[in-house]
Amino acid sequence: WCLLALAAVPAGCAHPVGPARTYGKYEGKATTTAEAAISNVETVRLVARAATDGNAFGPYVGVVVSDAEESLDGLSGTFGSVQPPDRRADELRTQLDRLLGDALDHVTDVRVAARRGELATLGDTAAALAGDAEHLRAFVEVHSGRRSSGSSSASSPPSGASSTSGISWPN
User: What is the DSSP string of 69-137?
Assistant: First the structure.
């Protein structure tokens, strides 16, 4: 039993991500990572709102937020293991790393507050995640070629996004 269990552990540690040999492939991996991060950020926002409204128990909130935090950290690590194929991809990596790091920091703040039992004000603690979600969506729009209707022109950031967000806006 013990040998079988130990033999299975290293197989679970391998990254399922292959190399990105072109900028386009790398950009696709970055976009997929950002989309997954949006899901985690929005999950935390939703559970924080439910907790603030008195519609979720503390232990449940703690588990949901911890799972989202672990997932975000895993996304960051997995994307970080992909070798950028060129300098342009290095810039893309820097942008996404910053967005993921900000989101992870804010999710961590929510987890800490939830575990301290600060459920009534958890929505306030999670407020920064709205900006994280918006920046991640803008990143996906720019790097996937998708444009949502009603979005700002491509030459300026979406409303509420600062020009210092680290996203390169096409001209």
Answer: HHHHHHHHHHHHTSPPSSHHHHHHHHHHHHHHHHHHHHHHHHHHHHHTT-GGGHHHHTTHHHHHHHHHH
Q: How many angstroms separate the most distant Cα atoms in the chain?
A: 61
Q: Helix or strand or coil: residue 152?
A: coil
DSSP structural state of residue 162? -
Q: Which residue has the tokens 């001209």?
A: 171
- Global pTM reads 0.76
- Residue with the bigger pLDDT between 43 and 155: it is 43
What was the pLDDT predicted at 19?
79
Rounded Cα gap, residues 89 and 73, in angstroms: 21
